[in-house]
Amino acid sequence: MSGVRPNLRLVTEPAHVIATRTFYDAIAEDYAELFRTELDDAPLDRALLTGFAETVRREHADPSTVEAGCGPGVVTDQLRRLGLQVRGIDLSPAMVALARRTFPQVGFAVGEMGRLDAADATLAAVVAWYSLIHVPEGDRPAVLAEFRRVLRPGGYLLLGFQAGTDTLRLDEAFGQQVSLDFHRLDPDAVVAMTEGAGLELVARLVRAPERRSSAAAVPQAAVIARRPG
């Protein structure tokens, strides 16, 4: 032996990444069942996804898209039905397994939105549908920079989130003792963040609380942005 020790680097995951994976692995089956028909009674969400997909397809002959934080794949498959060449990634292996089983016609993989498995400037669109809400404020600019990196010039980003400025912490879900933060986001701050990442605002939408839905009991928001070029 030469006596020279290799340069070993300890790679650690951010705490919020570990917490998000642990939370959704624990509740995957129950969560998927609860939200299996989430779009069926959400006409405004369907309209937004439809308009977004049509906008992407209008400008990109190759509408390659990634949904970052796809969960059980319901929105990913909806985007496929709307004509996007979409694949989904999620931190939770349990969620990815469910999505693959439910929607075998769509590609799903375990992955992190802050480190997308895509080359620079190759995607027509990125969708983060209620997944940025688990990223702490200090880490969001890096995630937005990653989204911009993979978008080709003229590529689109869709962010869906609960509007607000507070953080909801759940320490139990579906009978499981798991803990996770749900950050409600200020739409103006999200717009500023996307612009800070070098993206242009296309649309900013805010919807009032919907009494019929426990999931939409607080204002819901969406921001669509575009990489210039």
From TrEMBL:
<keyword id="KW-0808">Transferase</keyword>
<dbReference type="InterPro" id="IPR041698">
    <property type="entry name" value="Methyltransf_25"/>
</dbReference>
<feature type="domain" description="Methyltransferase">
    <location>
        <begin position="67"/>
        <end position="155"/>
    </location>
</feature>
<keyword id="KW-0489">Methyltransferase</keyword>
<dbReference type="InterPro" id="IPR029063">
    <property type="entry name" value="SAM-dependent_MTases_sf"/>
</dbReference>
<protein>
    <submittedName>
        <fullName>Methyltransferase domain-containing protein</fullName>
    </submittedName>
</protein>
<dbReference type="GO" id="GO:0008168">
    <property type="term" value="F:methyltransferase activity"/>
</dbReference>
<dbReference type="GO" id="GO:0032259">
    <property type="term" value="P:methylation"/>
</dbReference>
<dbReference type="Pfam" id="PF13649">
    <property type="entry name" value="Methyltransf_25"/>
</dbReference>
